[in-house]
Amino acid sequence: MTKTIHIGLCGLGTVGSGVVRILQDHRDQIKYKLGCEVSIKKILVSDIHKKRDINVIGSELTTDPKSIIQDPDIDIIIEVMGGIEKTYQLMKEAILHHKHIVTANKDVMALYGQELLPLAKDKEVDVFYEASVAGGIPILRALSDGLASDKIQKMMGIVNGTTNFILTKMADEQRPFGPVLEEAQQLGYAEADPSSDVDGLDAARKMTLLANLAFKTTLELSDVQVKGIRSITQEDLTFAAKLGYTIKLIGIAEVNDEGKVEVSVEPTLLPNEHPLAQVKNEYNAVYVHGEAVGETMFYGPGAGGLPTATSIVSDVMEAVKNVRLGINGHAYVIPQYKKKLKTDKEKFMKFFIRMEVDDTAGTFQKLTNVFTGEQVSFAKILQLPSNKNQTAEIVMVTHSVSREQLRKSLEQIMDLSVVKKVISYYRVDGEE
Amino acid sequence: MTKTIHIGLCGLGTVGSGVVRILQDHRDQIKYKLGCEVSIKKILVSDIHKKRDINVIGSELTTDPKSIIQDPDIDIIIEVMGGIEKTYQLMKEAILHHKHIVTANKDVMALYGQELLPLAKDKEVDVFYEASVAGGIPILRALSDGLASDKIQKMMGIVNGTTNFILTKMADEQRPFGPVLEEAQQLGYAEADPSSDVDGLDAARKMTLLANLAFKTTLELSDVQVKGIRSITQEDLTFAAKLGYTIKLIGIAEVNDEGKVEVSVEPTLLPNEHPLAQVKNEYNAVYVHGEAVGETMFYGPGAGGLPTATSIVSDVMEAVKNVRLGINGHAYVIPQYKKKLKTDKEKFMKFFIRMEVDDTAGTFQKLTNVFTGEQVSFAKILQLPSNKNQTAEIVMVTHSVSREQLRKSLEQIMDLSVVKKVISYYRVDGEE
């Protein structure tokens, strides 16, 4: 009853320090809630002698991961050191040594989750990764516990704080992508190499984790259709606004009645009054549509030291409970459905298309001939004189069409001599 | 390890039947997640012979609550029968017989929670009531677990589905309160006696439960400032819309740095682009602002048989885990702070005021004299000719003032001979 649970903490950056602080500040409360003590026995750091503004008395600092993984006293390993390959190796080793793992590492989980999770189940240990998906939002818990007795049909959300910060600034302050990215980097919202965020990969990793949990299947990162935000221009935002839309980087995961799945991350136009259109700056929000519960939404800070540390501590408490219940490994949601992906013929949505065309009689008819041939019809059309000589700019929003219909139409459109350029096209969603 | 947990289910209406169905459909999954079986031993009904479209084979139907409360085999009692006094007695008796309780009854919890919760802690049993606050939203769990290591500063939300349905219809279809209420009653969204909902009491009960949990104090229903939606007219909605606002029934609970609390439920004008302004129909949403985590929001169906039943089952699973961990009663959030309430002098907010005045020279000066004397200044003023002879209608939005400043101003305003009538006034919130 009064056994102490020993923790090995790997990483002592912002999140790691936050975890140490929360466990210290809430020691009594945690003991009361769990019926046992939780104590950090060892901490993996890269430099033992570095000066730190956190009290780690009672914990042994080490630079040797093995001394943590192989310590028979340690029950749970908290991984907040980042990295991919080495970290994956460390986690795998730890599982093989029967350690439970709590991690904030979405990269490792998206790339190696399909290997690590069944391995952990096999070894009867827990792998919890709530903090990896959306810092302050308990969405994994909700999917695996609260909504577990429901059939999830669709999820849709903003799961990357950096790109949402950039898009919010671009729209509100009418500034182009480049300078806003620089500002985000200076503020620490974007990394020196921003590609993982701005090219949509980070969001795609999170959508993979969410979709596998919600649909109980085994999607990989490469199953996600990804498009980032680099090519979004001020003109795109302006034209979208003229039609009543806001552009957000939206992740969507859907399963149909036949169990066929589609997952995508791409810039998407949402009606201004759509709740996700109102999610600003670095905030994240995810809609979950379940058969029984209906629509629920989770909203909160997408990242940040304290939200992430809070989430880690919740996971640790869950793991401790499971240790004491003897049900470790049971939290793992076993994939029940073989992966079945929709083809582009089966993916239906609306699109926003911008193109520059000759401003001459007959142009419009040539365009409509192509679209009609592919059975693509339009909900909104806007034609404006372009700044350039004798050209016009056309902005269209289609009715629901398949990705294949769109692709075929655009191929033919680009071959028309009256079309100078297809400037951009984006998904449109959130309308009834 | 393979002990069975026995349940006594009190009530077999929509929610009760939903609970039976979920426990049947997910039997294996629940057993796997808990490491033990959960079985409904007895069900309390008012008529044993009533025909039901649910399979209750294996459970004993009874009309005698004592046979459940005093059954030594039964560990957990699920209370979904409604009512107040008798139900409170039943719950208290059950606690004294060392039964854990899972309830959807916000009335009993708001009125008697301060007595039942410490009693339960004393008897080392759990009382879980997630389903009582907002059917499909796991907000109590979030406050008592996930956000437990944070200091909650403010909560703001829509916590009553009936009034939100009515206000949505009134605004979208420009119909008055009466007929919309009738429609809501026909659709089953409002009860035959709608006063608990439309007068704001139901929302006030929920805000009491949320505030006590978040601020760890002992507020009572009578500490909540309550105003319902009966008096909201189509003109109020129209004038609010002209100024860019939507009217919602909003519950707000705040604590300041000195630990002084204010809790209110009242019609409130929110900017149209505020996320809560977008919450439609019977949906609920609650913003939680914590010191560490920042802003999080929970959104979902406010009620409904299946969401509520899903929430009940989650609570049951939590109680079962606690039984097996031997930590029942520990989930109770012990009040740590003596109740301290703000006075009306200390409650600051903006107000929207509509009045009918003489359309003569000098009227406006008389008004501004009064307001200036009370140091009330305005952000927005709109004057329109009224339909009536020689009167005008004035709509004002104040800057932040205290409730006392407002009251004193309005008292003097009503004494002015040029003022025919103060038509309405509402809180304004959600602006920076």
Description:
Chains A, B: GO terms for molecular function: homoserine dehydrogenase activity; metal ion binding; NADP binding. Chains A, B: NADP(+) binds at residues 10-17. The structure is a homodimer of 432-residue chains. In chain A, the strands form two sheets. In chain A, strands 7, 8, 9, 10, 11, 12, 13, 14, 15, 16 and 17 form an eleven-stranded mixed sheet that branches. Chain A has a six-stranded parallel sheet with strand order 3-2-1-4-5-6, sandwiched between helices. By secondary structure, the first copy, chain A, is an alpha/beta fold. Chain A folds into three domains: 4-135 and 305-325, 3-Layer(aba) Sandwich (Rossmann fold), CATH 3.40.50; 140-301, Dihydrodipicolinate Reductase, domain 2; 348-428, ACT domain (Alpha-Beta Plaits, 2-Layer Sandwich), CATH 3.30.70. Chain A contains 15 helices and 17 strands. Helix content of chain A is 38%, strand content 27%. In chain A, helix 8 (161-173) packs across helix 9 (177-186). The interface between A and B is large, with 53 and 53 residues. Strand 12 of chain A pairs antiparallel with strand 12 of chain B, so a sheet runs across the interface.
